[in-house]
Task: inverse folding
């Protein structure tokens, strides 16, 4: 079975665009990706659109209304924060299955400010702050505290993740924020849910990213000069574990996806040149160094301390600035990650280029749960 | 002649808090033969897939603190800071709730500290009809 290629991919600079609509943001990204591929909407045979906020409101079709109503099939995808990766994977799968040759995947989100999670309470009384917290900062703080209890990971070590990712974002013109934040600044910022301070929480922004995927046959026709090969596309849900239904387990769902991704690609963690992983909160990133096999269990603290995961280190993580600094528009992130990795594989990442990048990995997690992992390869 | 309004006892904050309004409130889980314990209503075990074989089981009022976070930012009307705690109960079952009667300070909270499950009014919260609720909380073991 032949491979699938990314022929064009792009994202808009993340930010706040209250004057735009969700379809307008998605359309902008779609046109950027189409232009990058040297193709038009008329060339697309299907479209997969990822959006959460308007998941039942036909966002994909409304994007086509902005750029070309060609009558192609549209699937609107939702998988919490793994939405973008899910849309990309569905596009990939339709080509793998031999149904399509040229497909558009779009991820888009427009977000308000403030806390996510902790909702519900449709019956009875609200449970937030009564039966613990269901807000995202608290849920991921608790996940980080599990790492603390097992390995003694400190508040300071978690905070270093933000220092690193905020620094990386100063090299990324498409990041929402591009501000250096020294360690004291991160640790002294407003505490949201210990140990996550405000600067250790991903930023809610508006954003969109899109990709044009093609079959190998089509890639050869169009020219492979800037094509990126998709070596693995994996999606998992949270397998049963004792505490999972009360304390969401982001580790098992990631480990399962990572194992399957490395197997599908036929490579191991040592072959990966850079990773864009799901740093929804600084505490989460630490867990995923181990979950993705970058180090042995218990060594994540050492990795951040010793700079192994910074640009220039052994395995650069989130050189885009990550969700913490580039931003996390929920439906777009899963494709924005793939844009970042593709840019490095094409040698076009400018000031933040990871030299000699050959394989890149992207990882997103949607709570509830879904984990999407892709491995991409430079076309020699 | 005075009319005695029928006073409704406090309602349980969740369906698996049993004995609301009695002197013996407790938490109930549904237990599978395979050992999995679930909170809330369901028919089937999502660990082993067993169908219609779950049995109600009274959960212990004692446990150990597995992990926690101290919440400083919440929605309007929620008093902060408070401690969100994940507790493993003796004999099985993991429950999330507020850890009370301890300073919201990491230096004062230890992983695995023994806790008791206690019951009390749900922080004064009432529903649209004005009903009161009884909730569970954790506190350092006596």
Result:
């Amino acid at each position: 079975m032949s491979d699938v290629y990314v022929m064009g991919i792009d994202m808009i600079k993340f930010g706040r665009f209250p004057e735009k609509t969700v379809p307008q943001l998605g359309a902008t990204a779609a046109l950027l990706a189409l232009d990058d591929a040297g193709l038009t909407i008329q060339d697309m045979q299907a479209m997969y659109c990822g959006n959460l906020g308007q998941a039942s409101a036909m966002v994909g079709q409304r994007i086509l209304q902005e750029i070309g109503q060609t009558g192609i099939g549209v699937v609107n995808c939702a998988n919490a924060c793994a939405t973008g990766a899910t849309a990309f994977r569905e596009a990939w799968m339709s080509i793998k299955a031999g149904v399509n040759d040229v497909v558009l995947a779009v991820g888009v989100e427009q977000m308000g400010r403030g806390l996510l999670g902790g909702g519900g309470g449709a019956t009875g009384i609200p449970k937030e702050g009564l039966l613990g917290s269901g807000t995202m900062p608290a849920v991921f703080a608790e996940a980080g505290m599990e790492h603390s209890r097992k390995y003694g990971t400190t508040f300071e070590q978690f905070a270093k993740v933000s220092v690193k990712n905020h620094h990386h974002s100063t090299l990324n013109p498409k990041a929402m924020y591009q501000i250096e934040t020294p360690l004291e600044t991160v640790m002294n910022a407003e505490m949201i849910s210990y140990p996550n301070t405000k600067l250790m929480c991903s930023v809610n922004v508006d954003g969109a990213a899109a990709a044009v995927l093609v079959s190998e046959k089509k890639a050869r026709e169009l020219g492979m000069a800037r094509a990126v090969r998709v070596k693995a596309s994996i999606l998992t849900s949270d397998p049963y574990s004792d505490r999972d239904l009360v304390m969401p387990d982001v580790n098992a769902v990631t480990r399962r996806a990572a194992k399957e991704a490395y197997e599908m690609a036929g490579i191991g963690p040592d072959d990966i040149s850079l990773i864009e992983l799901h740093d929804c909160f600084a505490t989460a990133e630490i867990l995923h160094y181990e979950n993705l096999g970058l180090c042995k269990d218990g060594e994540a603290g050492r990795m951040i301390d010793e700079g192994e995961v910074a640009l220039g280190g052994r395995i650069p993580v989130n050189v885009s600035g990550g969700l913490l600094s580039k931003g996390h528009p929920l439906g777009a992130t899963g494709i924005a990650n793939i844009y970042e990795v593709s840019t490095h594989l094409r040698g076009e990442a400018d000031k933040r280029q990871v030299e000699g990048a050959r394989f890149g990995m992207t990882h997103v997690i949607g709570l509830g749960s879904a984990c999407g992992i892709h491995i991409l390869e430079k076309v020699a | 002649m005075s009319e005695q309004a029928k006073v409704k006892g406090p309602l349980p904050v969740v369906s698996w808090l049993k004995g609301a309004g009695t002197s013996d409130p407790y938490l109930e889980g549904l237990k599978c033969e395979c050992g999995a314990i679930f909170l809330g209503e369901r028919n089937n075990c999502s660990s082993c897939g067993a169908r219609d074989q779950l049995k109600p089981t009274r959960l212990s009022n004692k446990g150990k603190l597995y992990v926690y976070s101290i919440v400083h930012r919440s929605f309007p009307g929620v008093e902060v800071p408070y401690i969100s705690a994940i507790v493993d109960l003796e004999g099985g079952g993991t429950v999330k709730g507020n850890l009370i009667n301890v300073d919201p300070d990491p230096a004062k909270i230890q992983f695995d500290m023994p806790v008791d499950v206690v019951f009390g009014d749900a922080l004064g919260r009432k529903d649209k009809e004005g009903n009161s609720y009884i909730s569970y909380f954790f506190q350092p073991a006596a």
